[in-house]
Amino acid sequence: MRRLLKTVFLPATFALLVSCAGEQPDAKVAKAYPGLVINEIAAHEEHKTDSWVEIMNTSSKEVSLSGLGLYATDEYLNDKCIWSSSGGSLAPGERLVVTTADETLVTSLGSYSEFTLRLGTESGSVDKFVRSRDCAFTQYKRGSYQRIPDGTGSWRNFTYNSKDKENIVFDYNAPKRTAIWTWSSHMAPLMENDAAVMKELWRKGYRHLLLNSAAFTNRQQECAIFMDKAEEIGFIVHGWIQAFYNGAWDLPINKETKQIREEVYTAIHEKGRVAIEDFGVKGLHLDYIRWPNKALEYNFTKDVNSVAAVNRACREVREQCDSYDEGLVTSAALMPEKNSTNTYAQDPSLMGKYLHILMPMCYRYSYNYSDTGLVNVMNWFCDNSANAEVWSGMQTYDKSETPLSSEAILADATVYAQSKATGVVLFRFGLGTPPDMNTLYSEGY
């Protein structure tokens, strides 16, 4: 049973690398359970969600679990056994997750105060985690304490978890460059029938979901469940933020006073913080990071001008993501016109200095692109993207908003793939039939 939860104010903290001094295990216990370690801890009592612990066999041989237990000490408990093995064994590299969700872990753990968790028997320990020594930071809502490298390294506090998976710092270069723009209302159909649609998208080669930030603010309970399911399948979820638009345009320059509106940037940062710290997204995606038109009319000084305002948002979002030191990826949607700084204030050669990925919305049906025209405009963005990658934004519907077949979408994707762009992003889920992308984009493309 879980203890009563306390309401505690939790200050935001950034994930930091903390060295683990460690201590020598009890020789007799270590000999009985060679290579067994506590590898990951989700101490989530303060968040009123499941706590869990991952145990890993780092040895080269199968190890029996008979007689093994987890013992907790905190302000309530004094070396209390909170999990005891019912037998069995762990193969080399195998993991065992015990959790309050199924009561294999009989009490929650809270990271807001000191606690010790040891793996062993009543008489001694094979491994021990001491919060104040190993990772003295309150956990994020969906995060965990993880050993990096997996099974052997020092402890770190992450905004995302690696439950029952290898502990690694996220690297967006590993998966396919295949993404889908997803509204908050799409979470329900994606999760229906044990996430059958999501699993099918995964089989078809899609790896990234750009989830609108309304999911993190208006559908929080549903979103937490969605994040768990998406990550279980293997998807990388990005927080999709509408930067300068909130039901109406919310531009960061006041035309009358000719001053920067700081509250616009504050709102972007807060949306990003919630997506990262409360839901464990692995990236932030900026949409509406532009003027609707006539951006030139907002150019007043070197510091107060439309292009500088767009670039500031890109720079600060990158700085925000980098501050967590977790490999979080940044991206932005761009209008498809070349040389559009006077209209939209978007200069890919400047935005690309800060963001990892630019996603120009080169929609062939909205802009009547021929195959050659489509390749040419994508190549222009690639040639003017500074350090950023370019992924092609493409439609799943025609000019009359009639959904396209999988064959039609794949034919278009094949044209985009002839450009220098390294990935593709479908707009949008729920309209058109996503084709199998495995033949166009391979892992680590």
Strand tally: 21
Main sheet strand line-up: 12-13-14-17-18-19-20-21
Average the pLDDT over all residues and give the rounded result. 93
Strand portion: 15-25%
Q: Major sheet, described briefly?
A: 8 strands, parallel, barrel
Explain how this protein is built.
The chain has helices at 27-32, 131-134, 187-203, 214-218, 220-233, 262-278, 306-322, 341-344, 348-351, 364-367, 371-383, 406-416; strands at 36-42, 52-57, 63-64, 69-73, 80-84, 89-90, 95-99, 116-121, 124-130, 144-148, 154-158, 178-182, 208-212, 236-242, 253-254, 259-260, 283-287, 329-334, 357-360, 389-395, 423-427. The protein has 445 residues and is an alpha/beta fold. It folds into two domains: 27-158, Immunoglobulin-like; 178-427, Alpha-Beta Barrel (TIM Barrel). Helix 3 (187-203) packs parallel to helix 5 (220-233) and helix 6 runs parallel beside helix 7 (306-322). It is elongated, with a radius of gyration of 24 Å.
Quick overview:
The protein is of the alpha/beta class and 445 residues long.
